[in-house]
Amino acid sequence: MDYVVILPTLNEREGLAKTLDELFAVGVPSERILVVDGGSTDGTCDVARERGIRCILQEGRGKADAIKTALKTVKADVYVVMDADFTYPAEHIKELLARDCDEVIGARRHLEPGSQRLLYRFGNWLLTRWFNLLLGTKLSDVLSGMYAVRREAVADMEFSSSGFGIESEIAAHVASTGGTICEVPIKYRRRVGRKKLSAQHGLKIAKDMVLLALRYNPAFLLSLGAALLAVPGLLLGAWVAYKWIFLGVKHYVWGIIAFALVAGGSAAGAVAVLTLYLKRMEIRVLKALRRIGRGSPQPQ
Ligand SMILES: Nc1nc2c(ncn2[C@@H]2O[C@H](COP(=O)(O)OP(=O)(O)O)[C@@H](O)[C@H]2O)c(=O)[nH]1
Ligand SMILES: [Mg+2]
Description:
10 helices; alpha/beta; single chain; binds magnesium ion; 14% strand; 300 residues; binds guanosine-5'-diphosphate; 7 strands
């Protein structure tokens, strides 16, 4: 299979050396590995070059820009992305490649003691739930740093995330354009070297997920907005009607407010339904375009 392993690095000298040696040990040839460096000052790229591996300097800043640079630089049918800190065992690559899905996430199920602090584990769980709610997916570890994605599934992607939100952006894009996402349980080890991700990054990822939902799954947020307007509007309207009919008291201002809330809610609801239809149409068009691109016949 035509794949490339992409390793984003930032001052990851020690971790990269161990990661590369392990990749060789499981039979990944050096020409199938690309290191994308974020401007390390500890000689990270030298570690790669000493082993005959290509190391390029990323455009922009942060992990997301590094992945973006890699996708632009190398062409392969499948991209396997993996942290270069020795946390993800290379043995799982073959399992990721064996699955027939547009994206295969290595879901961290078997954690080595000390590999993930309780706060990170909880944050990770919470962010995955948040993502599932906003994007309508059923994933268990959307932020895993080890995944394989087909080039076809990300070919028309317009990246907007920065930093550590890249994993959720790829998953949001694949899921919302009719792609399939699978998960494979993997082991997760203690990190070699210093961690770059902090708790603040978690908050940014959560905020970015809302923006992703607006872009990729607007129906959910619009329905939520519709409910938040229409439900209080209906309750208020019922109260106004009750006072008028049974007690003869007329609350004009509250009546107008209730009407405005219900009208606003209905409009948002109608737009939500419309976006659902548009989304379905987009998915059908994309699938047809991919079929044409592959030269396969149209389904009967
Ligand atoms: N190219 C590049 N790599 C980065 C950057 N920040 C982090 N990385 C790499 O991305 C991977 C994940 O970083 P890490 O600190 O382990 O974050 P975590 O695994 O999400 O906790 C590691 O291989 C880092 O060296 C960056 O700005 N540019
Ligand atoms: Mg890591």
